[in-house]
């Protein structure tokens, strides 16, 4: 009987597999070997797609005549920086004494792609190959994954979608970046007075740029509009409450053109007119025409997926999505939490049955102690499978991010910020075992001369899950005496009006994205799509994946298309970013729209699910590349773009470089293809 090879994605993960397997050996150069098993590793990607010049040296020079570039057969090559490890891994996989390969790369599309490329370039033949699919790096989970490993062929569709995703990004990036650079790069460089400008575009990256630029322009073009609300102070002195007037049916101003919505006026004089009408007949009193008392339940939110966690950490700690992923990946590798690159916010029924193990393990985490005592007393963990936090249908690759209950001692050695992120995950997890928070809500309607004022109040009766999750910052406490007075008000009661006031308000522009809300917008791209049928079709797809969204933002910042305020995490476009946006908007507009990007992602999901073939997907992709490339070649829109550049530059208050570049003549800058 031959040896088994376990190939992980990183050296640190390989070490955990070696420990779980009780592999008694010293580390060799790039692998660990025992009597019956070998553990080796990649270091991320070992193999990549070849650039066009690998097909033909002449393609190194950028030229419109060689576009579109769509090879019949794609070529791959070993990455020079990791060539040594590739040779070690390839040698091990092909050893005659090895008969079984356990693929232990990260359990997802990208992890699948990393291994398949290695196997492809190493020319592995005649081996039994099994896929280990795990959700955490605890010993128990690793051994379960090995024990239940499936034949690698069962993941062929996932592998196909991974290859297609890479080909798609490659073809769009190579063709459209070269195309738009050759067509517009010089004009951008001349305008910015830079040496040259490469127009870098990508399937996901350009769409995200579009989201940010559109939002910024909405803010820039926003015209603030004042409006005037009328409020009244009702009740006896010392126990008054505020009610807001609304022009509901029966009001003299119902559906009036003077209104700004139903609770304000466009002009202050109209608000004064209302007050004069209400105070014509003193004493001014109000009659309570309606009261409503009801209890409201608020349940704990769903568990964290990566996007939700990135948004929460951006809000709380002002850190980037990329930093959050780095931290939670570190926590995962220390066995503290489950697999981070997940889109699911629920648990599987299988995990729910074993959830007591996670809770028992958290007994060693001191801050969780009081909450675990409550959960034990409630016994709620026994019925977790029947709650909304467990749903097998909502899980594709991995369930939500939760604490494993293991590795608690490792927390002593992690940075303070990492410990804080861990605590956020723990508290969200524990909160789902608590009952809902219960609020008492009282709503009142008071009429003065037939005009209605509305007031509502809410107090927290039972904190429920908020005990573990923490009360929201905006939660306001209500004085007991005041609350008693409010509850005693009955329908038909007459209340003195202590004051009527005009409150000026102003319409607000859309909020800028921060790094966290932008990640959520990428995940929920379907909400940005107006077409209802398409929105339904791509529900759950979004832009990019949980594993790539942070890297996409990082690339946009690196290219200086977007700027990130590290203190606030607010994201804004740069002048160059807006110019790239205008170029794409006037050439391949669909690249800016969530419809296209999300539908491509949905197509990859169809391939992974076996609903369409690789050939069908590639045929659609090839046609898209060809048609858009030929369309851009025939465009003559430089004048329109110059107008757009001027408009953007005016906002940034940067002088046009036209005068400076003109002194050099049209040949003042080399084309990108000549450099």
Please give a structural write-up.
This protein is an alpha+beta fold and 675 residues long. It folds into 4 domains: 3-148, 3-Layer(aba) Sandwich (Rossmann fold); 163-221 and 511-674, Orthogonal Bundle (Topoisomerase I, domain 2); 226-299 and 437-506, Topoisomerase I, domain 3; 306-431, Topoisomerase I, domain 4. It is 41% helix and 16% strand. The protein has 23 helices and 16 strands. The chain has helices at 11-20, 83-93, 109-122, 139-147, 156-192, 205-221, 268-278, 306-317, 321-333, 349-353, 355-361, 369-378, 416-431, 466-469, 480-487, 515-523, 532-537, 549-558, 575-585, 594-608, 614-633, 638-652, 658-662; strands at residues 3-8, 31-33, 37-41, 47-49, 76-78, 98-104, 128-131, 150-151, 226-234, 241-246, 285-298, 437-448, 451-462, 494-506, 562-564, 571-573. The protein has a 6-stranded mixed sheet. Helix 8 crosses helix 9 (321-333) and helix 9 crosses helix 18 (549-558). The longest helix is centred in the N-terminal third of the chain and has 37 residues, at 156-192. 39% of the residues are buried. The model is unreliable at 655-675 (pLDDT under 50).
Classify the beta-strand content into a percent band. 15-25%
Biggest sheet, spatial arrangement of strands:
2-3-1-6-7-8
Largest sheet: 6 strands, mixed
Distance between the termini: 59 Å
Radius of gyration: 31 Å
**CATH C-level of the largest domain:** Mainly Alpha
Q: Tally the helices: what do you get?
A: 23
CATH superfamily of the largest domain: Topoisomerase I, domain 2
**CATH-derived topology of the largest domain:** Topoisomerase I, domain 2
What structural category do the secondary elements indicate? alpha+beta
Dominant shape = flat
Number of domains: 4
* CATH architectural type of the largest domain: Orthogonal Bundle
Mean pLDDT: 91
Number of strands: 16
Pfam families: Topoisom_bac (PF01131), Toprim (PF01751)
EC number: 5.6.2.1
Protein name: DNA topoisomerase
GO cellular component, one term: cytoplasmic replication fork
């Amino acid at each position: 009987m031959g040896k088994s090879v376990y190939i992980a994605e990183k050296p640190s993960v390989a070490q955990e597999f070696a420990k779980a397997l009780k592999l008694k050996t010293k580390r060799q150069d790039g692998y660990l070997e025992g009597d019956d098993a070998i553990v080796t590793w990649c270091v991320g990607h070992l193999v990549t797609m070849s650039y066009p010049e690998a097909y033909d040296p002449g393609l190194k020079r950028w030229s419109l005549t060689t576009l579109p570039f769509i090879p019949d057969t794609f070529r791959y090559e070993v990455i020079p920086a990791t060539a040594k490890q590739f040779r070690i891994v390839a040698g091990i996989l092909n050893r005659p004494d090895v008969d079984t390969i356990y693929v232990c790369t990260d359990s997802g599309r990208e992890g699948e792609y990393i291994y398949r490329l290695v196997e492809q370039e190493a020319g592995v033949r005649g081996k039994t190959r099994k896929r280990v699919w795990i959700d955490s790096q605890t010993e128990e989970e690793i051994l379960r994954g090995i024990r239940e490993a499936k034949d690698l062929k069962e993941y062929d569709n996932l592998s196909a979608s991974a290859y297609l995703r890479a080909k798609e990004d490659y073809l769009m990036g190579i063709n459209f970046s070269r195309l738009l650079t050759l067509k517009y790069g010089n004009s951008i460089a001349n305008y910015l007075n830079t040496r040259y400008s490469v127009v870098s575009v990508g399937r996901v990256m350009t769409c995200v740029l579009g989201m940010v630029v559109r939002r910024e322009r909405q803010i820039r073009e926003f015209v603030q509009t004042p409006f005037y609300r009328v409020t009244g102070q009702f009740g006896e002195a010392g126990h008054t409450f505020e009610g807001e007037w609304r022009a509901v049916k029966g009001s003299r101003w119902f559906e009036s053109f003077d209104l700004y919505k139903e609770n304000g006026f466009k002009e202050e004089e109209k608000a004064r007119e209302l007050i004069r009408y209400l105070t014509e007949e003193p004493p001014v009193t109000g009659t309570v025409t309606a009261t409503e008392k009801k209890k409201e339940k608020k349940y704990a939110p769903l568990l964290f997926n990566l996007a939700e966690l990135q948004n929460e950490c951006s809000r709380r700690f002002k850190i980037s999505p990329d930093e959050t992923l780095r931290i939670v990946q570190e926590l995962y590798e220390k066995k503290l939490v489950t697999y981070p690159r997940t889109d699911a916010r629920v648990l599987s029924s299988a995990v729910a049955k074993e959830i007591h193990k996670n809770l028992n393990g958290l007994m060693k985490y001191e801050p969780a102690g009081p909450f675990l005592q409550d959960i034990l007393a409630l016994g709620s963990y026994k019925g977790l499978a029947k709650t909304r936090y467990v749903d097998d249908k909502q899980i594709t690759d991995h369930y939500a991010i939760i604490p494993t209950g293991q590795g608690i001692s490792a927390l002593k050695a992690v940075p303070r910020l990492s410990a804080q992120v861990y605590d956020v995950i723990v508290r969200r997890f524990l909160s789902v075992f608590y009952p809902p928070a219960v609020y008492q809500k009282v709503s009142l309607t008071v009429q003065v001369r037939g005009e209605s004022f509305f007031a509502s109040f809410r107090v927290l009766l039972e904190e429920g899950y908020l005990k573990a999750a923490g009360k929201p910052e905006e939660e306001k406490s209500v004085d007991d005496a005041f609350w008693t007075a409010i509850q005693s008000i009955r329908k038909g009661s007459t209340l003195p009006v202590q004051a009527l006031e005009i409150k000026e308000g102003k319409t607000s522009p859309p909020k800028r994205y921060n790094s966290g809300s932008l990640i959520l917008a990428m995940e929920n791209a379907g909400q940005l799509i107006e077409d209802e049928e398409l929105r339904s079709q791509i529900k759950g797809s979004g832009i990019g994946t949980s594993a790539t969204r942070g890297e996409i933002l990082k690339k946009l910042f690196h290219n200086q298309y977007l700027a990130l305020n590290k203190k606030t995490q607010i994201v804004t476009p740069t002048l160059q970013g807006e110019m790239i946006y205008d170029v794409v908007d006037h050439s391949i507009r669909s690249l800016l729209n969530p419809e296209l990007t999300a539908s491509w992602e949905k197509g990859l999901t169809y391939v992974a699910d076996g609903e369409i073939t690789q050939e069908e997907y590639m045929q659609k992709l090839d046609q898209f590349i060809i048609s858009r490339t030929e369309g851009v070649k025939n465009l003559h829109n430089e004048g329109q773009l110059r107008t757009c550049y001027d408009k953007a530059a005016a906002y940034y208050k940067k002088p046009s470089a036209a005068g400076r570049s003109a002194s050099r003549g049209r040949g003042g800058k080399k084309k990108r293809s000549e450099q």
